[in-house]
Design brief:
- This protein has helices spanning 13-30, 40-52, 63-80, 94-104, 119-126, 131-137, 216-220, 292-297, 304-314, 318-324; strands at 161-162, 166-168, 174-175, 177-185, 187-189, 195-198, 203-211, 224-232, 235-244, 246-255, 264-267, 276-277, 282-284, 315-317, 343-345, 348-355, 371-382, 388-397, 401-404.
- It is an alpha+beta fold.
- The longest helix is centred in the N-terminal third of the chain and has 18 residues, at 13-30.
- Strands 1-18-17-10-13 form a 5-stranded antiparallel sheet.
- A hairpin with a 2-residue loop joins β8 (224-232) and β9.
- Helix content is 24%, strand content 26%.
- The chain binds a DNA duplex through residues 10, 54, 84-85, 112, 114, 118-119, 122, 126, 142-148, 150, 198, 200-202, 267, 269-272, 299-303, 352, 357-358, 360, 405-408, 411.
- Residues 110-415 bind DNA.
- Residues 49-123, 404-426 are annotated as: Disordered.
DNA sequence: TGCGACACATAATC
DNA sequence: GGATTATGTGTCGC
């Protein structure tokens, strides 16, 4: 039994079991040994974070297994998050409602706009202040750490961009993959349409893919292939047809300037007290995006049945599927059998993600530097040596994102750093 | 100057 | 309804 650090305490046995399954999935993906071309990112992605992980408190064996453990723990988290919430709008204090209303006029509201004075702001919120007063203060009020207000829909993603074509194995039909994703926490708009996040704060993102004109049954009934660019010593030498073992979704960040590929880190709910790891790569089957409220409701759940319900939304239970279609798993000859675990994602959910502290976030002049988040659909294939490796099939990306650093100037609306107009309560 | 670490505070969750 | 948890952010000191 592996140790799981402090997170373990919050888990039910069910969670642990599910986590093991998911971890198995990730271990397979993460054992991907060699990468090509644009996948070098993934390579460094994984390696970098292995070395970067400060909290290897588990008695891990070698790197790969460490990573496995990381993924494991990470997924325990995911298991923890479950449903329940609702439009808290109805039960939030009047003043807050007004604030929110105001904010929504600017799409996503400022919410956690950090303010200077801390405590008095909370006081205003919790009781004594009039709505008017709150409105006036809203620009400098910050949202409390656990406030559900922190969940806001972020910027829309681009249309799906294709990198490698996908074909049906049976009839060579060209298949059109569609990626969807949404940021559910951590970004808000400035007045001029820029999207702003805070380096110190978490963001949440969900993603799913589908194949055009393929419902789930049709997906299951088919196998797919693509082409990998073959190269020798950096020289392109054509393409090889390769069967896609299974699909996976990953999240990467890119910078407008340099190529900082390793710029995301994920925490556990324990944050400083827990381990950190790169966002996982989710083996996934086609799925439908959950709505914002569902994602919101899925966070920080510890109740077993709630977790279970959430897992039904976010994960595909292969065993259950075999059972319902009365199929012997040993006789499965579909793409499903290639997936690396019994816990396969319908929806890739990335929670508690932050830009790594190693990234530089300066933003004195207007357009100095920005980031974009990219959700990628990967085809996991085997190369000549039967080594598993991912091929980038398609991707979507956010518009430019401003990530505000830790500078105090970013935490005082009076010192307008350029994008705080929306915070003002008038 | 920016960052790791620690600390405080507070809504969500059970 | 009290205890615990998760997390925005204030702060210290390198």
């Amino acid at each position: 039994m592996m140790t799981m650090s402090s997170d373990e305490t919050a888990l039910s046995p069910d969670d642990a079991a599910a986590a093991v399954a998911v971890a198995a999935a990730n271990s397979a993906v993460n054992s991907i040994p060699s990468l090509k071309e644009d996948d070098h990112q993934l390579h460094s992605f994984v390696n970098h974070h292995q070395t970067q992980n400060h909290h290897q408190n588990q008695n891990a064996l070698h790197q790969q297994q460490q990573h496995f453990l990381q993924q494991h723990q990470q997924h325990q988290q995911h298991q923890q998050h479950q449903q329940q919430h609702q439009q808290n709008q109805q039960r939030m204090p009047q003043a807050q409602q007004q604030q929110q209303h105001h904010q929504q006029q600017h799409q996503q509201h400022p919410g956690h706009v950090p303010g200077i004075g801390t405590n008095h702001q909370y006081d205003l919120l919790t009781g004594t202040a009039t709505p008017e007063a709150d409105l006036l203060e809203s620009g400098s009020r910050k949202v409390a750490p656990r406030s559900s207000d922190l969940f806001k829909v972020g910027p829309p993603f681009s249309e799906t961009r294709h990198h490698q074509d996908i074909y049906c194995k049976s009839n060579d039909l060209d298949v059109n993959p569609i990626l969807e994703a949404r940021i559910d926490r951590g970004f808000e708009t400035g007045e001029n349409g820029t999207w702003i996040g805070y380096k110190r704060n978490y963001f949440t993102l969900v993603a799913a893919f589908s194949l055009e004109n393929f419902d789930f049954d049709r997906f299951i009934q088919n196998k797919f292939y693509t082409f990998e660019k073959a190269s020798r010593n950096g020289q392109s030498v054509g393409e090889n047809k390769v069967e896609i073992n299974y699909f996976a979704i990953r999240l990467v960040a890119k910078c407008s300037d340099d190529d900082v590929s390793i710029s995301l880190i994920q925490h556990t709910a324990k944050r400083d007290k827990g381990p950190q790891f790169p966002p996982p790569i989710y083996p996934a089957v086609p799925g439908e995006m959950p709505d914002h409220e569902t994602v919101k409701a899925s966070c920080n759940k510890r109740n077993g049945s709630k977790i279970e319900n959430m897992n039904k939304i976010f994960y595909f239970d292969r065993s259950d599927y075999y059972h319902t279609v009365n199929l012997d798993s040993m006789k499965d000859d579909t793409i499903l059998k290639n997936y690396p675990s019994d816990s396969i994602s319908r929806i890739a959910r990335f929670e508690r993600i932050q830009f790594t502290s190693s990234i530089r976030v300066k933003q004195t002049s207007a357009n100095s530097r920005y980031f974009t988040l990219h959700v990628e659909l990967l085809g996991i294939v085997e190369d000549e040596d039967l080594q598993i490796q991912p091929i980038l099939l398609s991707s979507i990306e956010t518009p430019p994102l401003i990530v505000r650093g830790r500078s105090p100037s970013n935490y005082h609306k009076e010192r307008t750093s350029g994008y705080r107009g929306h915070l003002q309560g008038h």
